[in-house]
Hints:
By secondary structure, the chain is mainly β. It has four domains: 1-109, no CATH class; 115-163; 181-403, Galactose-binding domain-like (Jelly Rolls), CATH 2.60.120.260; 407-503, no CATH class. Helix content is 6%, strand content 42%. It is built from three helices and 33 strands. The protein has helices at residues 13-28, 337-340, 396-403; strands spanning 45-48, 53-57, 64-71, 76-81, 84-85, 99-101, 107-109, 120-121, 129-134, 137-142, 145-151, 155-157, 181-185, 189-190, 196-201, 205-211, 223-230, 240-248, 265-272, 277-285, 290-298, 305-311, 325-335, 349-350, 370-380, 407-410, 416-419, 425-431, 441-452, 455-459, 462-468, 472-478, 489-503. It is elongated and about 150 Å long. Mean pLDDT is 89; it is low at 83-93.
Amino acid sequence: MSQNDFTIANQTFPNTRADINSALQALASTSSGGSAPSTTFANQFFYNTTSNLLQIRNEANDAFITIAELDQANDTVEYFKSDSIRTALIEFTDGDDALAIADGGALTVSTSLDMNGTELILDADADTSVTADTDDRVDFKVGGADVAYITKNDIGGIINRMNAKPLIINGDMQIAQRGTSTTGITTSGYYTVDRFAVTINALGTWTQTQDTTVPTAKGFSKSLKMDCTTADASPASGDLVLLSYKIEAQDLQLLKYGTSSAEAVTLRFHVRSPKTGTHIVHLYQNDGNRHISKAYTISSADTYQEVIINIEGDTGGTTNNDNACGLQIEFYLAAGSNSTSGTLATSWAGYTQANSAVGQVNCADNTANNFFITGLQMEVGEYDATTMPPFQHELFGDSLMRCQRYFQKYTQPPLVGIANANNTYARAKMLLQTQMRSAPTAVHNGTFNYFVSNSIQPTTTAFSATYLDENVAEFDATTNVTSMTAKDPITLIQNGSASLDLSAEL
């Protein structure tokens, strides 16, 4: 023990000398000992040989403040602040300057800076950073959102998101080639807004409209409206009605379904429902016959509400790399017991219809019911309201071209060809506006006039496809005119409201 009370008593000379030597030894050894000195002074140094802590007495002389811990085995120091150990910043072992901090804060590291997965924060509110907490992968976060990653063989995320196409085509409901309103809907099909289909089985009668009722200040001018015109307050077991959006399987390869690296996605949409309570979004994975359902709650009827839903990746399914349907996103409006009697499939599982729409309210129970949706987007990754990337508004022409991969409507088709030898029909063809998903089916509405030798001939009496593929359409148009000469050049032009519909919908 090298400790002393630092008080020299009146005593004999030998005892006085011994007392002075003891006091000096205490000073020289920083009052070292296995416990604190019994007599202490403000600002007194003390080295605890049991804990290896270097301490100093506070000004009030009622406690010791720890300065550092001395590693006697390795001759290093760990500095303290209050009672918690701070990371050792500098270890002086061989005299080299491993780290230098200049006046003003500039940091110089003489060798590598090993952060070992620690997040490097780059801004004041800590929402922009770089981290490498996964082996051989660097992740970048900006504004709270994970925007990109880099691996040895891949650059991923949304680094070039401004130049990338949104996964959902026409999510802002701008394109409606078939028309802006259809009444009396009782069967499944595509009716107005491109890429959005109605699936219905004996549950009410509906009018579908491309509407202008939209959420305030969200950047949308169009919505898809489902208006119940014949109500059904008590759906039968097999009844249902829903809106669906279908995605080609080859466009889903980035999700890596069926692997341990299957990607999560986030859906965001703006919805206005006539019914408060539970609503269901159902995803069906066609190739794997698997599904998942997520519930969301409408808190206020007939009021727009933003919904954000995280959906985990499907490690158990498969998605073929082809042009068939790979994924269906379904928004239930109502359903009978065949779809609601089970347990909601909140995780990916083999398809069981009874688990699809458990809890779904009935939006078909009153003819005053109107259901609206707009701003549908799907992003790879999990986001919340603060981190979700903004909706990508495509130029109208770009969105139209992407829709035309699945449906093309011609009111003035560029059909040109030659008359046939029997003088009663002509074969005409045209190049399609953009490559379609597959060879389309053709529906001819109304009639067309022949334009032959600078004169208009009577209208067509029959119109049939002879050849269709993804890029070309060829038709035989028949008339009752017998005065045409074989191999006469002909053009078909619109008569009234005639149109030609080509569909390659999923």
